[in-house]
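User: Fold both of these, please.

Assistant: Here is the first one.
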Amino acid sequence: MSDMPPTGSPSGPIGPPYPLDERSLAQATRIEITTGSGPGGQNRNKTQNAVRLIHEPSGVVVTATERRSLEQNRKEAFARLVAKLTILNKPKRKRRPTKPSRGSKERRLSAKKADSRIKAARRKPVND
């Protein structure tokens, strides 16, 4: 018996694919600090307070440039990253195959016949 914690499957641990706690996100995310672009003039162009977060495991990229403070932009970017990863963590619903009902088949075929009659009426009559 090994000292490894139990896993849910051979591919990984139990739980969502991307952990959302601060420590895990900080370890799995590359932070880039840049100069923000856009309106704001000299005040915006001379300070590096725009934040881009790249979540390595998922490839999700988020940016925050609205605030003047680097720390506020960093917090905002992490909040956006958590929101995107929350969406990615939701399990996809399995598709249950269904068959069209007899009534829906009949309605579809009768609509096709009606369309065919309308289009046939548009054609030129055949003269023998």
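And the second sequence with its predicted structure:
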Amino acid sequence: MPSTITVQEFAPLSRKGGFDLIDVRSLMEFYEFHAVGALSAPLDTLNPKAIMESRGTRATEPLYIICRTGGRSSQACQMFEKAGYTNVVNVDGGTLAWEKAGLAVNRGQKKMMSLDRQVRICAGLLTLIGSCLALMNIWFLVIPAFIGVGLTFAGLSNTCGMGMLLTKAPWNRGLTNCSTGGGCCSQGQC
């Protein structure tokens, strides 16, 4: 089980600097807003070995990992541990707790629709369409039932298949990562 740190415990470190913080949310979420000093390394392309190698002499120091609320960062910590890197720490509560605690964030210049909002719109539309089509043929009730099962699974597992699919959509792909699994955005760049 990965080590954790609350944003309140992390606050003195963030003010002092000299830490490595990886944000494993999608690039779209990262550019919407992120913790000052965080580097982007989306979970779906995360390469623990490349990240640790890029840290050079700092590879022996703790690597802090953050996401929106703590679920994806916990998965990322497990990926690092599986790859043999044990000095990783999950920032509990994620960027939402970070911002709520009054810690500095960088906000994107381009206003984007959040991934969470896109998922709600897509799930709602699919449920509505399936329900309307069911008036013509009862077998179309499979569509809203499938969406209900998917949302239940997403809530229980803290992973969202629809969200992962939406990150691949053309309107969300305009952002590019500088390297596969590596980080590209530092405090002065974003």
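Residues 3-107 form a domain with the Oxidized Rhodanese; domain 1 fold (CATH 3.40.250.10).
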